[in-house]
Each structure stands twice: as C-alpha cells, then as structure tokens.
Design brief:
This protein is of the alpha/beta class and about 325 residues long. The chain folds into 2 domains: about 10-135, Rossmann fold (3-Layer(aba) Sandwich); about 145-319, Histidine kinase-like ATPase, C-terminal domain (Heat Shock Protein 90), CATH 3.30.565.10. It has helices spanning about 15-30, 40-45, 70-75, 95-105, 115-140, 160-170, 180-195, 200-210, 215-220, 275-280, 315-319, and strands spanning about 10-15, 35, 55-60, 85-90, 105-110, 155-160, 230-240, 240-250, 285-290, 295-300.
Length: about 325
C-alpha cells in the first residue's frame, strides 16, 4: 500500500480478472487500499478470517459463479457485524424488482458496467464517506443519555450541516431504536438544508459531488443574503405508542413524489437515494406535506407494531 492509501479500504468482488485489475488501479491511484475476491463465496470467507480488516465499502459484481452478487448481499444483510458496510453493485441490469431487492439487502449504490475510472472513484469516495459519517452517528446514537425517557416534546432550529449531524444523534435517543433512525434523520435534515433552504438542485448536487465541492458550495450559500436567515424547524413528540418528528424548512419546497422510491433512471447517480432509503429503513411512516418543505416521520413503539394503533396518526393508520 502506498503512502497515499489513507482514504479507506475497499473490497472488490468480481470474477473478471481484468475488471479487478482496473478497479485496483483506479482506486489505488485515488488513495484507497483495495482487497480483491473472485466471487462472493471467497469474499465471505475473507470477511470472517481472524484479523481481516473490514472494508469501508464493497464493490460487488452482480453476475458471478459459485456465489453471485445477490446471494452475497442476502448473507451480508443478515450479519450484524457487516450489514452497515455500503455495497456498490456493478451491473448492467436496472429492472425495478432487481433494484428493490438489492436495496432491501443493502445495495445502496449502483455502478453501470462497463464503468469509467472517474465515476468509479467518485462512487467509492461517496460510499466510504457515507460509511464513515454513519459510523460516527451510530456510535453517538448508542450512547444513552440518562433522563431522555422523561422528555415528551421538544423544538429545535438549525441551519448548518454540522448542526444537522449533531442534532440527529441527539434526536435518535428519543426513539425506540436510536441506531435505526439516526441515519434517516440526518438525511432528511440535510435535505432540508441543501435542497430546501439553499435551493441546491438535483443536477447541481450531482456536479458538486462529482467535483468533490458539495460541502464547500453549501457553506458558500449559507453566507448569501438570500439564504442567511433560513432555518430548519424540528418538532419532536413522544406519545405512548409512537414517536413523531416534524421537520420544516423555509425554502420553496420540491416535488418529493419521485424520491419516495428508487427510480431506475437515477439508480446509477451518486445521490438521490436518501429519502427512499430513510423511508424503507428508518421510519414506519413518512408523509410530505404541502409544497414539500414539511415532512412528518413516525416510528411506532415496539408494542404497537403489527396492530392498528388507536392513537397513531391518520396517515399511518391509512398506510
């Protein structure tokens, strides 16, 4: 490993030696450490070897002998030690049912084959960064604060990305399973800042992520007069059978409907999965309102899941 290899460790799983060679070449040049496996079964054994350094992202080919990508994903999703590692699925397939199954098993990123080095590097960098931030958030969420169980309602206001991440860890403490909701809360708060208050468009974010300048642009816009006073408003309520979080921004809203599900036409983008992933993984109900600048997030108490709750919100009972 060269002196620059400090960006993170990546496990590449592919039965094509040439593809593995290209992946290693591109990612090593970008500063990543790369470990290789020729199929899912071999990679699974590597991940369980004593002393093996766990990767911060996994590049996974869809079609392989011995154990293909979907079989590997199914195993990974059931392993508590490994299930949080982000998976980048390499595939030429973009069928909705394939995508839905892959997402349910943990494939949050997709890379079209044949790939180019620039997109590969950008995708891996995004996945590793997300993993590192999510790990920090989960660690913070796991620190139970004495007295939290007594709180019934609270209101907060914020405008900065760092405030969103800190508040997410704090808010997660008031939900039945903090580690389940912390990433989802973070995603929705950041969405309210960047797309809501700062009017960053989907296309603009794509370019910013590709160039590695997204956070720089967010900071720049935060200082502009037209955005300086915009806030994100957060209202938390804890009731016997559910906990609800209402998040409102001061922006002009957006069309949220296409983002509730992973769309095939966006599956190979560097972003655009956060709302759908939060809806799928973090909350029992997600309801956008009005022009899209308000969203209500609901999590049922463990005892109330599986039955209609007489005190639950109407939108939840109708879902």
């Amino acid at each position: 490993m060269n002196a620059q290899a400090s960006c993170g460790c990546v496990l590449a799983i592919d039965d094509e030696p040439f593809d593995l060679m290209l992946i290693e070449r591109y990612l090593t040049r970008a500063g990543f450490e790369v470990k290789r496996a020729a199929n899912g079964a071999l990679a699974w054994r590597m991940l369980h070897e004593p002393g093996f350094q766990l990767p911060q992202a996994i590049l996974l080919d869809r079609l392989m002998p011995v154990m293909d990508g979907m079989e590997f994903l199914a195993l990974l999703s059931k392993d508590e030690r490994l299930r949080h590692i982000p998976v980048i699925m390499q595939t030429g397939l973009a069928e909705p049912d394939q995508i839905a199954y892959g997402i349910a098993c943990g494939a949050r990123y997709y890379l079209a084959k044949p790939f180019n080095g620039e997109l590969l590097t950008s995708m891996v960098r995004a996945a590793v960064t997300d993993f590192q931030r999510a790990s920090t958030l989960r660690d913070a969420a796991s620190q139970v604060v004495k007295g939290n169980q007594m709180l019934r309602s609270a209101k907060f206001e914020l405008r900065l990305l760092d405030d969103a991440r800190s508040l997410s860890a704090h808010l997660s403490q008031f939900f039945p399973s903090p580690e389940r909701v912390v990433s989802g809360i973070t995603e929705i708060l950041i969405n309210a800042i960047e797309h809501g208050n700062l009017s960053v468009t989907y296309e603009e974010k794509s370019e910013l992520l590709k160039n590695g300048t997204w956070e720089d642009e967010v900071r720049r816009r935060l200082d502009l007069p037209e955005f300086r006073d915009n806030l994100v408003h957060v209202n938390l309520q804890r009731l016997p059978n559910y906990t609800v979080l209402n998040i409102t921004d001061d922006g002009n809203g957006f069309d949220w409907r296409p983002f509730l599900e992973i769309q095939p036409e966006r599956v190979f983008d560097l972003h655009g999965r956060g709302i759908a992933m939060s809806r799928l993984m973090s909350f029992d109900n997600m309801e956008y309102r009005g022009c899209g600048n308000e969203v209500e997030l609901t999590v049922l108490a463990p005892a109330s899941t599986g039955e209609a709750d007489q005190q639950a919100p109407l939108a939840l009972k109708a879902a």
